[in-house]
Amino acid sequence: MSVEARQYRLVLRSTARGPLLQLRVLPPEAREVILVKIGGKGVEELFNHMVEVLRKHGYIESETVTASMRAYRVKQEIGPVVGGYMVLVRRTRDPSAWKPLFEDFLVEKYFGAKTVLSHVLSLSEALSKLKPPSKRVRMQLNPKILDGVGAGVKVLARKLWGLKKP
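RESULT FIELD:
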């Protein structure tokens, strides 16, 4: 599945186990799939911040709100960057520590941030093709690969951009 010609949706779902933040993608002539999902504490706060920043910079195209779900269609050019950011913060203990960096990455306060984050999502997809997730995971990308890539990107971000350990 290539990064081009896709529609990205940032979704917050309410479930019995708590809120879930998801990045979904609708490839041409295919069914919508979940690329990355994040659960746990602080997810709703992270989602609200991401939506606020994306709206501020004009990257949100439309929104859908139901009783159990809030979804925003994200512009195609920024979708991979959002996905890369979600891989970065996916397994962090405190997502709110990385929250202020989202806007800095979008406006490229850190050189090459958009490119790096886009490639993070592409790398995760390429590796997941080699080792697909089990059917019960209901995700396109392998969670173990996302965890490994996310950990590596945290180290890269700290070294490349001089970020302190959040």
